[in-house]
Amino acid sequence: MNLTERLQLQSLLVVAALVVIVRVRLDVAWSALAMPAILGALIGLALAWVIARSVTGPMRELTAVTRDLARGDLSTRPSLSAVGEVRDLSTAVHRLAEQLGTRIGALQAEDALLTALIESLNEGVIAVDAPRQVVRINRAGRELLKVTEVVPFSTDRLPRVRELHHAIGAALSGIITEPAELALGDRTVSLTARPLLGGGAVLALFDLTRIRKLETVRRDFVANVSHELRTPLTVIGGFAETLAHDDPPPDTRRHFAATIRTHTERMQRIVDDLLDLSRLDTGRWLPEATDLDIAALARDAFSTVDAQAVEKGLELRTEVEAEAGTLVADRTAMRQILSNLVENAVRHTTLGSVTIFAKRNGKGVSVGVCDTGPGIAPQHLPRIFERFYRVDMGRGRDSGGTGLGLAIVKHLVETHGGGVTAESQLGKGTTISAFFPDPEPDPNRSLFAES
Predict the structure, then answer these.
(1) Which of 320, 272, 315, 266 has the alpha carbon at shortest distance from 295?
(2) What secondary structure letter does DSSP report for 264?
(3) Does the reported pTM lie above 0.70?
(4) ω into residue 58 within 30 of 0, thus cis?
(5) Rounded distance between C-alpha atoms, residue 20 and residue 41, angstroms
(6) What domains can be seen in the chain, in order of their start residue?
């Protein structure tokens, strides 16, 4: 091998050695750099996951909260643990939920107040929307229309009264109708209908039944008073004119004078009874309760009709139970009650007896008068306590009654907190009973008694 070949071989060996040395050093360097790179990649992935979690978690929570708010659940709130813009968004949603809750609470309170006001009205109130659905009706409206359906329901479910449905149709068309009266069963009702600005209509129903009955009673009362006073005034005027212009015999003059006196006393009784009723109606009279002996009051009441009873052959009886012998009531009122009942019974009884009774009745005492007179027909019985009402108009007036006695009895008993009832059978007689409740115990009185 020549020199040239040896130099080439040495050069190759040197290069190979250098390559081996470089490769070894590269392997060492790669081993030193691989672990930090892998660790850095893992740390980067972990940081990316944490950052993504901190953003996507609150976003998912915000999505769930907004869905709950949309469904009407205002109790849910987003947490404020996020950072940055996500936290700002969570804070905005939290404030929005608070404001929605406050406003909806205020609207619910206002609706509850409106409902309470409408329900407290004595007038019936009905709200109808454009499709003719009843969307609101208060208690008074249900009672007047006898409606039990749950709102909303069609107006076809309302009573088929022409005026009612005509008013609804007119109001839904934007026409304001004038108040009109209509009959709903046994009631008289005033109806007013008004259109609403946003569509629909509102109806107001006012029950006029009591007012119309009071007007009827007032007209009857005026007519009866006029008639009751006109009859004696006509007699007095005629007899007085005869005495003034003629010169009748003494016996005739005495007869005329007695007749004038009788009718004058009759008018005086009517005026006195009217004044008594006026005081009772206005509440200016209050009973002064005291312990009363029923038997003694019965004797006083019978003493005023003894002559009439003897003339008719009537037996006057008293039946007072031992536990009902004493009554706590106003003495003057009890005298008037028994006197009116006894006089009325003797006036209309021609055979048999008139009995004053008193008996224990639950938490009170019942005091009344029972007679064996002709009785009262069932159709008249509910009205005998009305002023000037007479079962037999001619007989009642001719016998001297004013037509106010039973009305006064009813008012006096009710002023004591009790009530009066009447039972009757034709041909057998009538029983009128007044119930007086036991007085409330007075603790001061018991204390004084123990002292």
Answers:
(1) 320
(2) H
(3) no
(4) no
(5) 31
(6) 10-102 (no CATH), 121-207 (3.30.450.20), 213-282 (1.10.287.130), 289-437 (3.30.565.10)
